[in-house]
Amino acid sequence: MTIPVSHTSTADVVTRDDIDPRAIERFTAEITSDIEHGAYDGVHVILARGGEKVLDTTIGWSERAAGREMRSDDVFRVLSLTKAFTNLMALRAIGEGKLSLSTRVVDLIPEFLGTDPFRMLRKDRINLIHLLTHRSGLTPTPNPGLGPDGFGVLADVIQALGGVDVLFEPGENLNYAPAINHALMGEMVRRAYGAESFGALAQELIFRPLGMSDTSFGLPAALADRAVPLKAYLPEGGFLQPSDIEVLNDVITADAEMPWVGSVSTADDVHAFAEWLRRRGEHNGEHLVAPAILDQATTLQTGEMPNDLYAEMAKARGWEIPKGNFGLGFSLSGTGTAPSFFGPFTSPRTHGNYGAGSSLFWVDPERDFTFTFLSAGVMEESENVARFQKLSTMAIAAAL
Q: Phi and psi of 310, rounded to 5°?
């Protein structure tokens, strides 16, 4: 079967002396081969250096089974890449004096404390920096305290989290939290601003100022026809089941407010977000978030700690155990050669975010390079790490 390929914005793509065109050709050929062999269904990928696109292409299908080819304006449910947007809302609130890294969850959400004395003792100490660095000690579950029917109502999720377990002392270990940390963070930001709607606040603080017109929390009716359906290619018995992913096709509705997993976006919008980060928060001569805050947010905060979730995954594959490498909400490349999403050849302060088995962006500040990749077809997570390690390495190899 011929793989559909479309260079979507050739007018915006430039040829630069510091980009190896043969490396770009190898990169796109590798993606095409992966899709041909069924690893995933399709992708919209953008590479840029110095703010100029050097590749902008769609390859494959939005929905392989239906023969629907990937389009440049396709709208993706970006899963945990959503956390990047919630992180930046929190960082903006810090810069505006509405929150601080030491603000406790219970300072704004007193009902989170619950009534269990043992849980209360630990919950009382969880603060914003614990949430941003995945060191809250809360249970690392994709279920934020409710069944799927309740995921989309943030108020209901917050009410349910009053009874959630605390597994570790806050700050003492790093265990990636798919849901709970960012549910709490999003509600902290909403209450700090006194906003009625988390989704509307995101439009005000991040999406409208950056011109991200196809990005929102929840899937608006106006974007529904362009939405890429979530199709999970996951083995049974893993950390995530296919139903954990595919149920979000129905849960991410126009009214859903899920600060951890519930946003939709396009590759162009995520690229614009990545470029804003590359410029250290500058957009049209203004800074939505101060460079000083973004500099700290993209500096290692978790030392030598491994990320427990990904450490177990690495052990199962026989890989070297990677460091957790978190800044304030951002994943970092770090040092060393352990398998990672950004690969071992991006600079140590390369930073970005990713969504389960499908989406990723990163910014390499040393090489002035951005990578945006939104794909259809959700892969098993260790295979996803291997894919992005390979493709991130091939992308940065194009930088001369």
A: -80, -20
| Cβ atoms of 377 and 34 closer than 8 Å | no
* Residue labelled with tokens 């957009």: 283
Distances (CA, A) of 14 to 31, 60, 392: 21, 23, 20
Cβ proximity of 206 and 89 under 8 Å: yes
Q: What is the pLDDT of residues 39-94, one digit of tens each?
A: 999 999 999 999 999 999 999 999 999 999 999 999 999 999 999 999 999 999 99
CA atoms within 13 A on the CB side of 337: 0
The SS3 call for residue 383 is: helix
- Say how far apart CA 290 and CA 271 lie, in whole Å: 20
- Measured CA to CA, the distance from residue 298 to residue 152 in angstroms comes to 30
Locate tokens 């800074």: which residue?
287
CA distance linking residue 232 with residue 379, whole number of Å: 7
For residue 395, what are its two tokens? 């992308």
Residue pair 187/290 in contact by the 8 Å Cβ criterion: no
DSSP 199-256: HHHHIIIIITTTT-TT-EES--GGGGGGBPPP-EE--TTSSS-HHHHHTHHHHS-TT-
Residue 160: φ, ψ to 5°: -70, -30
The Cα 386–Cα 374 span in angstroms is 16
Maximum CA pair distance of the chain? 63
pLDDT of residue 10: 59
Token pair for 142? 């994709």
